[in-house]
Amino acid sequence: MVGRAPRPGLPPPPPPTPRLPASPPPPRPVRLAPLGKAVCNWPFGDPQDDDFHFCEAEAEPGKPYCAEHCNRAYTRSTRGEEADEAA
Ligand SMILES: [Zn+2]
Q1: Which residues lie at CB < 5 A from ion ligand 1?
Q2: Helix intervals (H) in the chain
Q3: Is a pLDDT exceeding 70 seen at residue 64?
Q4: Which of 1, 8, 50, 65 falls between 20 and 30 A from 74, CA-CA?
């Protein structure tokens, strides 16, 4: 191997075209209870179903969910259903 001559005739491959990211879904507004408190947005059931509803417990300050559902949303535990009465 002598030197490093560029290989003629072979153009560099074109850079991969970046895929445009899909537009993110619009942020869901925090639902407010009549008292002006934020309520839990945790969905129950299928949005297509008639009985679809939200938890609507009082949400944690600055969070879209109540304390219980914050735990579920932010810690993916494998413990399954576990009722923890401790506040
Ligand atoms: Zn909740």
Answers
A1: 40, 42, 55, 57, 66, 69
A2: 67-74
A3: yes
A4: 50
Q: What angle do CA 38, 85, 76 make, to 5 degrees?
A: 70
| Residue 16 neighbours by CB under 8 Å, 6+ apart | none
Q: How far is the CA of 7 from the centre of ligand 1 (A)?
A: 64
Q: Does residue 76 carry a pLDDT above 80?
A: no
pTM: 0.45
Of 39, 46, 43, the C-alpha closest to 63 is: 39
Q: How many angstroms does the Cα of residue 44 sit away from the middle of ligand 1?
A: 9
Spacing, Cα 62 to ligand 1 middle (Å) = 14
Q: Both tokens of residue 34?
A: 């009549």
